[in-house]
Amino acid sequence: MTIQVSDKPHSSDNTSPPPEDLVISPNVTYMAAELVIAFFSTTGNLLVCVAVGLNRKLRTVTNYFLVSLAVADICVGAIAIPCAILTDIGMPHHNLYLCLLMLSVLIMFTQSSIFSLLAVAVERYIAIFMPFRYQVLMTPRNAVLVILATWILAFLIGLVPLMGWHKTPPDTGYCFFVLVVDMTYMVYFNFFACVLTPLVIMFLIYAQIFVTVKQQVRRITSEQSGRGDGQIRTAASMRREMKTATSLFLVLFLFTVCWIPLHIINCFLLLCPRCYVPLELLLTAIILSHANSAVNPFLYAYTMTAFRDTFKAIFMCCRTVFSDNKSSPKPFLFSAHSLCMCCGLTWRIPQQSHSASSRL
Candidates 3.55.50.30, 1.20.1070.10, 3.30.70.100, 3.90.45.10; correct CATH number of 24-310+336-347? Predict the structure, then answer.
């Protein structure tokens, strides 16, 4: 969602920036930062997808939703960021609908990310508060249906500007965000209805999970003396649920921290069109929002043992494959099959015996 503003304040008698005030020269620092983010977003989230595909222990309903989130982040790195770089210099020229499509793709993928995070939160809620119905409600088939529904809805939300909710394009023909996309759509529909509302729901869900699990662990611990192993196992299970919920909440928290500043700037531009927004502040908010797509793989590796061990196994496999290729006189074709054969290491990673509802 690249927003173009002048690098100097506008006069108080103008309600919108004139064409000559637009920044149409390439910002090398901004573009370099975007390219770095695109690289890490694409490769890191591909690694997440490969890890779930190779390691059967990671094929849980929770991780299916995380794969959906990873696919959205891959699309941000491979599609949305290149589009943002092009629109940063006003391209494409004199093609309104292609311009709107290029500006809308990031909205689509961001909305898909939000819905994936919401699906994870609801899945965790069912696992903790409805454990006896979990196996019926959270089947792999139902998870796939939910993922398909979230992507369809995300695309419909992102395509709203193409359906007519946009500004009349300027005579210059430049494809700039604030001159083409209607800020009432971005603030009232996209932010308040489609972003802020799900975020509030997710924070409430995690707050209830943390409070309830903490109370149950405290109650079981206080009643543990003189009781059997059943309560000990229940307390251990509750602690695992707390750890899982904490890791997933961190994903949500980082998403919020990365995206809220840009949405606040959008609100500022709508409610105070004559106010001055420094270009450096705006570009920083844009880069921060895009950077969220690159951080999740690092977060998984840091907080989730199963992902971390699988990532290590994949790196060891790749190192072995390329080492053998370098030392072998015969030509070697690196392929998914060779990686799978080598990644027999993955299945020997020690796994804790977690319940199906909480294993990551």
Answer: 1.20.1070.10
